[in-house]
Amino acid sequence: MRDETKCLHSGYTPKNGEPRVVPIYQSTTYVFDSTEEVGSVFDEPTKALIYSRFANPTVMAVEAKIADLEGGIGAMCTSSGQAASLMSILNICHAGDSIISTAQIYGGTFNLFAVTLKKLGIECIFVDANDDDETIRKAFKPNTKALFGETIANPALTVLDIERFARIAHENGVPLIMDNTFATPVLCKPISYGADIVIHSTTKYMDGHALQVGGVIVDSGNFDWTNGKFPEFTEPDESYHGICYTETYGKAAYIIKARMQLMRDFGAYPAAHSAFLLNLGLETLSMRMKQYCENALTVAKYFESSDKIEKVIYPGLESDAGYANAQKYLKGASGVVSIVIKGGKANAVKFMDSLKLASNEVHVADIRTCVLHPASETHRQLTEEQLVAAGINPGLIRFSVGLENIDDIIEDIEQALANV
Ligand SMILES: *Cc1c(COP(=O)(O)O)cnc(C)c1O
Predict the structure, then answer these.
(1) How far is Cα 101 from Cα 378, in angstroms, rounded to an integer?
(2) From the CB of 106, is ligand 1 less than 6 Å away?
(3) pLDDT, tens digit, for every residue of 199-242?
(4) CB distance 107 to ligand 1 below 6 Å
């Protein structure tokens, strides 16, 4: 099946007389004929469902759909993108380990890696997405367990050279974990370029309608966990009757271990109803992504032609630093355009407040056009000097292009810029 078809049909195939649409299994638990049956599920947890803290049929239908779209062998949904990032790391790292991440990542992930993982004893070493191979290689230590990056970084919009990062990760015997939120599998399938694990905040384009927060981890099944660096995969897990994940589950060791250990213990699993809503978003993902790309390119070109705009960042523009990587890895540059308006913060605020159609909100990748001004919103605690040091221009605006008619979006921008 192609992506358009997978979006509609993967993950749930009703049999004779069953509901056309994946049902909402609103149940915390599952019934068995005998005590012996229940016991056998504890011995072999993939045999049946036992409890909705870590598995539920509605959620599993969505997991199968996303795994299929990404070209992975399995997936596990989480109750937020943050939970997906956290668990993708905790499944392979413990206190005393380190990871390497590009610095061009989502602010919440940066804080998770730099502050919270540090408290748990896991060090994160940051590299620049554009550093040369040698600089990135030098960041590796004997205790390094993963390399992490974003396909299209939020909000920097840098496009990662996935094959290069996969090669460096594999030379060092560790997996490449990619956050594919902004691209979605419709625009890029990182596994096909060598990524081992793919994660998403499904809150963004996958849901698309600003309805519910969620995340997902997808396992390519390609990484060799038996290379000596990952004893938790190859040695008996005393918390599960001495199971050896690579031995029992082979290629699915990572994703099954994530569910059996981390989801069991942390329980950040989505509700069936949330998964049902996410599935509605996924059904139109392929169609929506095409239109987001088309609308955003038009908006980016319009901004580029305005003398009130100092800089436009959009990897779909030939003038953009990420253009070559975008051409290689992406089927489209997605829906987010960053601009630096002339006249700094004052003009940025004036422009934002003059918009009538685009809404001012702390969100991105919604079906409706929305804008965010980091200097006065998400990063408002920083002084002008600190903003510059953090790479955030006071005039920077993140413009998330929606699916309204493009002429209405452009007219709104036009009238708002006229006020600046
Ligand atoms: C929003 C976002 C996250 C965090 O996801 P939540 O669903 O908000 O927890 C992680 N990565 C990227 C790229 C994001 O945009």
Answers:
(1) 22
(2) yes
(3) 999 999 999 999 999 999 999 999 999 999 999 999 999 988 89
(4) no
Statement: the pTM of the whole predicted model exceeds 0.85: yes
Q: Is the CB of 179 under 6 A from ligand 1?
A: yes
* Dist CA 374 CA 395 (whole Å): 9
Q: Which two tokens stand for residue 361?
A: 């909100």
Nearest to 204 by CA among 359, 370, 357: 370
Q: What is the Cα 288 distance to its own chain's centre?
A: 17
Phi-psi region of 346 (alpha: psi -120 to 50; beta: other; left: phi over 0): alpha
Mutate to test the pocket of ligand 1, among 202, 204, 364 (most ligand atoms within 8 A of CB): 204
Q: How many CB atoms lie within 10 A of CB 230?
A: 24
How many CB atoms are located within 10 Å of the residue 235 CB? Answer: 13
Output the residue whose Cα is nearest ligand 1's atom 2.
201
The model's pLDDT over 96-137, given as tens digits with 9 standing for 90+, comes to 999 999 999 998 999 999 999 999 999 999 999 999 999 999
Q: How many residues does the chain have?
A: 420
Query: Is residue 99 packed enough to be buried (19+ CB in 10 Å), middle (13-18) or exposed (0-12)?
Result: buried
Q: How far apart are CA 93 and CA 75, in angstroms?
A: 19
Query: Which amino acid is residue 19, in one-letter code?
Result: P
**Is the minimum distance from the CB of 178 to ligand 1 under 6 angstroms?**
no
